[in-house]
Sequence to fold (392 residues):
Amino acid sequence: MDIKNTPRRKLNIAMVCDPIDYTAGSIVSTWRFSERLKARGHKVIFIAAKTPYASGDVNGIKTYRFRSILIPKTEKRFYLAFPTIDEAKKILKEEKIDIVHIIIPFEAGYSFMEAARSMGIKVVTHSHTQAENVFLHVPKILGRDIMSSLFTRYLFWMYQNSDALVYPTEFAREKSPKMDPKLKYEVISNGVDTSTFKPTDPAPFFKEFGLSREHKYIAFVGRLHPEKSIDTLIMATPEIIKKQPNVRVLIVGDGQQRKELGALVRKMHLKKEVLFLGKVSGEHLVLAYNACDIFCLPSLAELEGMVVLEAMACGAPILIADAENSASKYFVDNNGMLFKPQDPGDCAKKALAMLSDGQALKAMGERSLKNSKNFDINKSVERLEALYYSVL
Fold:
């Protein structure tokens, strides 16, 4: 992108991200991008939902909050905001916004898009959402396919009416509705902070959770939601421990399926082998990746898979579901293995193959670390900033 002649004035950016207090890849990416844009001298504000559990600004960034509704099956934490177009116009004018960046493409995104377009303000949309993330838990008999189709058409309308579109991966671009060839777009990874996520002695993590270094660990990190297909990893465990009795599976995260997955573990008599550690963050998250011998993502739907990048940056070999709607499979490059989605037998087979050869497993970890350098978040922020300038 040639921007040598573009004036480099600092920008005022409004990021529309309703559930800014929720923990999911798109929201974490928004936090990280906004912090780095702010560090580069730009002003960033958030447009978000009012919630019973959070108020005020987020991570030191001015946050406007609006009336909202709770979305079911989200641990009572995912709210969508409903500002009016006039309220959006008022904020855009008062904050002298140059760019509206829509992260979450729902009602708030619609209002701010319409307001921005009426005021001549540029709009960038972000492809963080696919129908499978929203409707995978809905039974087909209740119209899942129809809902998915309508939602995809809505995404097409929103993306098509923006000035530029950001895809986190080439896979996301290919899965997206086909846009007008004239629409400006960039493929920009969510990236990983390799100064934070890096090889580190996990001793404090083992101590904190009472874990023995005598065991080998396969870890999942993420939301406990249906599209993550965590039950596949749990059901693979008996076959794994039959041949490798010292293996333990770590489930790091929380979500709507916590009780359901816990019941599955009890039913399969795996309470000693499958350990739920709950949600961890900060240093403990880095240590969790470093504690595992294999990082496993059985997910059925990912537009990138930030947890995979984080695990790779910590030097973890990866075991990923080769799912039709997941971009994460493309991270496997001599640093792990793919298994058939929703196939516990194949998951177990591939995990055992990786664990059976210590030298090969070590080489996979080294390859993960090397590959992660291609996704440095600072490069991603530079590209996002360049895209902003290019649409102005």
User: Anything to note?
Assistant: The mean pLDDT is 92. The chain is about 40% helix and 20% strand.
